[in-house]
Each structure stands twice: as structure tokens, then as C-alpha cells.
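Figure S4 source data
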Amino acid sequence: QVQLVESGGGLVQAGGSLRLSCAASGRSLSSNTMAWFRQAPGKEREFVAAINWSGGNPYYADSVKGRFTISRDNAKNTVYLQMNSLKPEDTAVYFCAAQRYSGSLYNEKVYGYWGHGTQVTVSS
């Protein structure tokens, strides 16, 4: 059993920052690539960022590159998403996920473990 729990979401004004956390329990996910996805109302879930087991191979969506930073602390079995210079279009429910299947890390289908999400709302 693996459980992922996101935290750190909330309401912030445009230009502000939030730091999301994803804590894993059940077993260590230190060898799994971890990712963040987000889903805005009426839209499909989209890739945000991913990080491999060592933390040395991050991937970012073009829409967040330069503003968001993904990191992980394997000793704490936790993944983070630092979000700076937030924009209203960043408003979404943010999910963390752990890779379980082979394939493109941009594809949500390669991730087999998901949290329930945390709401991020950015006001103008």
C-alpha cells in the first residue's frame, strides 16, 4: 500500500509563492520518479514537473519553467513543488504521483500512485 498526501495549497495573489509538499507512506518511493500534475476546472489533467530518484534530472512543463522548482528529500519520503511568480492561470488542483510503469514521464499513464490533490487558487 502506498499513499501520497499533498499539502500546502491555498489562496494567493498573483506574483506570490506557495510551496507544495507530497508525503508518501506505506513504503519508500526513493527509487521512483515523482511528478506533479494539475487540473483546472473543465480541463484535462496536465503535466507540471517530474524528478528522478537522485533528484538530478528534473522535467518541467514550458508553462512553469523558470517559475516552479521540483525537489525531493528521500530520507523524508517527500517531494516538493516550490511555485514562484504565480499567475491566475496556475489555478488548479495539484496532484503528486509516483511512477509505476514505463513510458514518457510527461504521460500521466506512467504514474500508478496518486494523491488526492490540493487546491491552488491565484487571484488577480
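Figure S5 source data
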Amino acid sequence: QVQLVESGGGVVQPGGSLRLSCAASGFALHDYSIAWFRQAPGKEREGVPCISRGDGTTYYAGSVKGRFILSRENAKETVYLQMNNLKPEDTAVYYCAAVAISTCPVVAARGSHNLVFIEYGMDYWGKGTLVTVSS
């Protein structure tokens, strides 16, 4: 079967850390650019980070830049999202997504330094893992 499987979610206190994993089953993850999206209760889904297949360039949403680190280990067909200094507003279901293009589908938002992550056209989606940041 072809799927993405996320793991590593859980409950942590503010300021704590978690590492999420995204593993491919049935296809070669190293042939895809990989992004993470998240959706908090009552809010729209938003892109968080992305790593390009071609040159390994990473992109981060302004709200997580400097706190989250995205990396990939091709030998294991796995992508890792290290989340540090977590805040209550990071609480959400986190989804892994893969797209068969060499560069991440991101564009600069007008009038700001934020990036817009394009989710349309993603080839595979995981089912999500819940991250809860609470004291």
C-alpha cells in the first residue's frame, strides 16, 4: 500500500520539545519534496515547513522559524520535524504531505515576509498526528 505515516505527537508543556516523523510506505520518499501542514481547532490549515527534493532547501512559516527544524534521512525514507520551544498556539493536528516536484511549492506573500505554502497538487497526505501544548 502507498501511504505516509506520521508519528511523534503527544502532550507537552510550553517550552518543551517534540520530534515528529513522516515515513513513506510503498514509494520512494526521496523522490518527493515534503511539507508539513497543521490545523488548529476552529482555524484553517496552514503550511509549517517544507524541504525540497532537489537541493534540500528548507522553508519555514514565520510563526515557527527559529524554533522548528526540518530534515530528511533518505536511507530510511523518513523526514523529521524537530519542534523546540513549543507554545500553546502550536497545538494542532500535524499532517505530512509529499509532492513529486524538485522544489517546494511556496511563494512569498504580498506585503509581508511570510511564505504561502501551496497544498493543491500534493500527491500524498498522512492522516495526521496530534500535538497538544498545555500546562
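Residues 14 and 60 are 20 Å apart (CA to CA). The chain has no helices and 13 strands.
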